[in-house]
Amino acid sequence: MPENSNTFSSLTAWRRRVLARAVHRGWRWVQERGAVTAQTPGPLRFRRIGTGTRLAFPQGTVFGEPWIELGDHCIIGEQVTLTAGMMPDLDLGPDPILTLGDGVVLGRGSHVIADTTVTIGSDTYCGPYVYITSTNHSYDDPHTPVGKQWPRAEPVEIGPGCWLGTGAVILPGARIGRNVVVAAGAVVRGEVPDHAVVAGAPAKVVRRWDAEEGWQPPLRTPAPVPLPDGITPEALRALAALEPDEG
């Protein structure tokens, strides 16, 4: 009896492993087929989707695509929301509302809500769950529920080369300069100068680059050493496989 029980348990475990592998293979197949690119747009009809740009599957809420332009080689993570206009099927005029430059990365679960113009510059990277919006609720009337009051909308502009950390919130009217770091969880409104680091809620400049004195306050860690030119993925894997010398 114990021997039969062990055999049954081994067979059950084997079936579970086979089923798990099949589920994972199937999900990878669905992710690959469900991704949106210029060649495989699925039901989405963007104003422009550049070469090499990919929206991972499953996508978040997407509407107003005729007023959304995506540059080349953008990476849009899973469950990312991209919307132009307050609701689907509106006529927003002849010009784009939401524009992503080349090489923009939007991390998993991020939201970009463009009721009026939102521009994200080339090579700007966003961590997971970043929220960028051109619209905010108003609360002028103390007797009317906030959600029923007409919202305020102001354009948002994010310069090229920025890094927006996990959970950062970019509010209507924000104008972020070039190569700006927005700390995780920061809430940004108003103008942020080029080459600055902002943190907090509301976000404040905590470090800036000066052409003569460098970063102020000074950086506390040394600059990382870049990879040599010409290094290949195979070479990196070989380096990672090397064991440290034994002393």
Automatic annotation (TrEMBL):
InterPro entries (alphabetical): Hexapep, Hexapep_transf_CS, Hexapeptide_acetyltransf, Trimer_LpxA-like_sf
One Pfam family hit: Hexapep
Native organism taxonomy: Bacteria, Bacillati, Actinomycetota, Actinomycetes, Kitasatosporales
UniProtKB keywords: Acyltransferase, Repeat, Transferase
Protein name as it appears in the record: Acyltransferase
Record keyword Repeat present: yes
GO molecular function: acyltransferase activity
Family of the protein in this entry: Belongs to the transferase hexapeptide repeat family.
Domain of life: Bacteria
